[in-house]
Amino acid sequence: MILSCDQIADRLEKKGPADQFIVIAPQPELKVLREKPSASVDLRLGTWFLAARTSSATHFDVFEQNIPEHKFVRQGYAPLGKPFIIHPHEFVLAATLEWISMPKGLSGYVTGKSSLGRRGLVIETSPGVHPLFAGCIALELANVGEIPITVVPGMPICQLFFHTVLGNPPATPAGGFSCRRQPVLGAIKLGPLVEKLRQRNALGEPPKDK
Amino acid sequence: MLDSQITADTSTDDANNFCRFSMDAIAEYAAVLGLIARSSEPVGAIDLHWPLKQLTKKALGGGARLVISSDWNYSPVTLMPSDLLARRDVVLVGMPVAEANNVLLTPLAGHELGHNMWQKHSVDPQVTTLIKAAHEEALKDPRWDKLNSEFWDVPEHAFNMALYQAQELFCDMVGLLIFRESYLHAFRYYLATDREINRAEHYPPMYNRVKILCECAKKRRIAIPDEFIESFEEQAEPGEVVQLIDEISNRCAADIYDLAQKLVDKLKLDDGSPEEVDKILECFKQLVPACGVQSLQDIINAAWRFELEVGSKTLFGEVEGQRETSLVSELAFKTCEVFQIEQELK
User: What is the pTM of this model?
Assistant: First the structure.
């Protein structure tokens, strides 16, 4: 079940089921939220960015993750209200200005503002927000258009939908990206299958054909 | 002088003077440019700039400018502004680069602000009078007769150094009065291991600074952290001249505190509230930044309490090392940003 704007405002005011109380800091204006004819809350662009470097590394290898993050990306900052330009075919990591604290009874998903999407700015590629997540949501911004696009920290950039979690809600948060206010690359998990095969290759063991 | 212009009618002497002033100014600004250029970790500086600048403006007036940098070359945490920069209300805060993203060190910037307040609010002449009296009184002690008679320049040197020490004490007191408990925590965190192998005579001895801070904290009803004094080592007795200098500045400590307190109260720099600190701490414990914050001091005091009562490791032991040490900075710096946004929208 997706929460309406009115219900989102209730949860922000600590009304309704206790396991669905949401915290958003800075808090959106509740009166405006309640009057919004939709089922999501708008989130704004934050001030910190990670932009890809073009010269320090030849490629990104998931097997060689010990290489420091700064070899691949450089950190950028644009003050609130000042422009940040994303050039054609450039990929930039950003984060929402709002810090979200998800309760255990709700999860969410993020979608970009369609008005920016129509101009070539793809805003989010991994939109799931798990129960008990706390932090600023990372945004993957990609300009797939042909002309540079200016974005401004503080402008609405995406929207967050909330839906209830059925069954037993989780007791601990998922993932390692919680409690961050800046975007980070983070580690890529290869999964048990790849890890096992890799270990076997390193030991020189033959594959199990049969 | 720098605002005047050289024309065809300018005399050679005036032109020479102009050039000399210009060169002095370039030399002073070069130090600041170097401080900025060497800055290696901008994250903390950027996040802290807005709330600290509001405090700076209250202390020095609306035209005050603030430069925060992180630099391997400057340690301990702060850098004293040159006369030229202080006259232009430029406050320099140099964070040690290894700690530049650590919000818990913020209170030490209060000490630096004290140096600018010393100049801006003419504290210097008032303390000079105090030091002069203490100097005369101290020299009456027969212990210093030998020094007095054998070294003609000792009295003047002792006076000058005692005045420097007095300024450092004043700045400690300003930091304490503005940031309250968190100043003591930050002071211990950063300076408790300082063995002072080569004692600088223009700084009061560390053990004296700590004892004076505690006395001032008691007067202001600021809670002193457990085993605060014990965290610092008592130093070996310095040479006779330094003993004289220390004695002179020590005699004035109580009066310097009165001056600092009056100034901080007059400028309304101590606008923190224990209730607000409690509220912010509750938010931090729920892993959310606080909204509706009234002052930077409350954020920093809540951050220190979070660090001491909860500790980042307790909550995030399973996540990579980098995260363990910076959770409190994440929450506090984000609260600083929320504070800024809320104030901008007012």
Answer: 0.86
Q: Nearest to residue B163, comparing CAs of B191, B123, B121? A: B123
Which of B324, B335, B313 is closest to A181 using CA atoms? B335
**CA angle at residue B94 from B123 to B344, to 5 degrees?**
85
What is the distance between the terminal CA atoms of chain A, rounded to a whole angstrom?
Answer: 47
B286 contacts on A by Cβ (under 8 Å): 23, 101
Interface probe for A, chosen from B47, B337, B339, B344 (most Cβ of A below 10 Å), is B337
pLDDT means per 10 residues, chain A with 210 residues, are 94 92 95 92 95 76 73 87 94 95 94 90 85 92 94 96 88 70 80 87 72
DSSP state of B289: -
Residue among A29, A64, A140, A205 flagged as catalytic:
A140
Question: Which residue matches tokens 């600074």?
Answer: B209
d(CA B290, CA B284): 7
Q: For chain B, first and last CA: distance in Å?
A: 42
**CB of A177 within 8 A of CB of A187?**
no
The ipTM estimated for the assembled molecules is 0.86
B180-198 core/surface letters (b: 16 or more CB in 10 A; e: else): bbbbbbbbbbbbeeeebee
Q: State the pairing for strand pair B65-71/B90-96.
A: parallel
Tokens 């968190």 belong to: B182
